[in-house]
From TrEMBL:
Domain Isochorismatase-like as annotated: residue spans: 9-185
Name of this protein: Cysteine hydrolase family protein
Source species, domain of life: Bacteria
Main EC class the enzyme belongs to: hydrolase
Known EC number: 3.-.-.-
Entries under CDD domains matching the protein: nicotinamidase_related
Keyword vocabulary terms for this entry: Hydrolase
One GO molecular-function entry: hydrolase activity
InterPro entries cross-referenced by the UniProt entry: Isochorismatase-like_dom, Isochorismatase-like_hydrls, Isochorismatase-like_sf
Length: 206
């Protein structure tokens, strides 16, 4: 059974910025991404959390890399339309993959009494994965919503072009049952209203 999400449960949206869709930067000349519905699923979750009065947190990536489109000084560093933070939201600016490294994310969580995180955003295998791993290792009750995440193809050192669906699926498979519990957007929304007796937490290291 997974208990209902209450005031101790924050929705953490990772790097929902316009630059994630500069696909040639992330995947090379064949750049492409998976899950075109990710933003719509994130928006449903965001509306649910705001309507329920639950904590909402965003990370914004301000890359150290000269060529990155994820710089807050660039138009591509802006939030995707519809994901502009409100005054009541917590906004964490970061310059590495993890939302916890070099930021006050953990402090803000402690101040708000947040012990559970529901994580969505970009990219499944980069900042989402790194933040999820750290959240689980730090002892937070961590949930990943794969249908509200997306990534791009990746080109390996031997030139193999790995399809974004495969990259996404392998990241989720590595996280679920070890660092977090993966649930659907529908399940996360339902958990804001009631316990889920038919679901089981799968997070390890406990």
């Amino acid at each position: 059974m997974i208990p209902k999400f209450g005031s101790e449960t924050a929705l953490l949206l990772i790097d929902v910025q316009k630059g994630v869709n500069v696909l040639t930067h992330w995947g090379g000349p064949t750049g492409r991404r998976n899950n075109p519905d990710a933003e719509a699923e994130m928006a449903r979750l965001l509306e649910t959390w705001r309507t329920a009065g639950l904590p909402v947190m965003f990370t914004q990536h301000d890359s150290r890399e000269a060529a990155s489109p994820l710089k807050l000084s660039l138009p591509t560093g802006e939030m995707i339309d519809g994901f502009e933070p409100r005054d009541s939201d917590i906004v964490i600016q970061k310059d590495v993959n993890s939302g916890f490294v070099g930021t006050n994310l953990e402090l803000r969580m402690r101040q708000l009494g947040v012990t559970r995180l529901v994580i969505v955003g970009f990219f499944t295998n980069f900042c989402v994965e790194t933040t999820t791993r750290m959240s689980g290792n730090m002892g937070y009750d961590t949930y990943l919503v794969p249908d509200a995440c997306a990534t791009t193809n990746r080109v390996g050192p031997d030139g193999t072009d790995y399809n974004p669906d495969l990259v996404h699926a392998m990241a989720v498979a590595s996280l679920h049952g070890e660092f977090c519990t993966a649930i659907t957007a529908d399940q996360a929304i339902a958990l804001t209203k009631a316990d889920a007796p038919d679901l089981e937490r799968a997070q390890g290291n406990e």
